[in-house]
Design goal:
Layout: H1 21-49, H2 58-63, H3 65-78, E1 81-89, E2 92-100, E3 111-117, E4 126-134, E5 137-142, E6 148-158, E7 161-172
Antiparallel strand pairs: 1-2, 2-5, 3-4, 3-6, 4-5, 6-7
Length: about 170
Amino acid sequence: MPIDFPAPPAPDRRRPFELSGRAVLFCMIGFFIVVAGVNGVMMVSAIRTMPGADVKSAYETSQRFNSEIARMQAQAARGWLAQSEVARAGADAVVSLALKDKTGAAVTGLAVEAKLQHPATRQQDRDVTLTETAPGQYSAKVPGLHAGAWTLVVEATNGGEAVFSSRSRIMLKD
């Protein structure tokens, strides 16, 4: 009895895959277009949400540099002790500042302004005027302030002259 062997497979008549220079060129061009497009979208998004500028004009700020140094030296020479706090009061928050001079006496009669600055967007910043509730004790209620990180900037003036300023990072909890 003869043995029947299967017939060999028919030869594949398709051309084998060849990577041409034109295909490589189009792949590389496409890759760089995608990378540039994603970078462009990310840059626009980053600049719109956080422009990076802390001051409106760096030139004007630099021109006031020496006077700011003198003002901060005068503030340090006064030796005032300050304690600021932001505490939750229901859905609102209360900003308070206690000021004492170097002898421990309450510092009274100041006009005190506070700014709560959101670290990511200036659209959520809040400005409040603190009122003197007791000798050396200043406070104000900030409605609808959400929890999270904030920068508290406090500035006190006496007769239009800046006599105290403070800047601190705080974390407001729920």
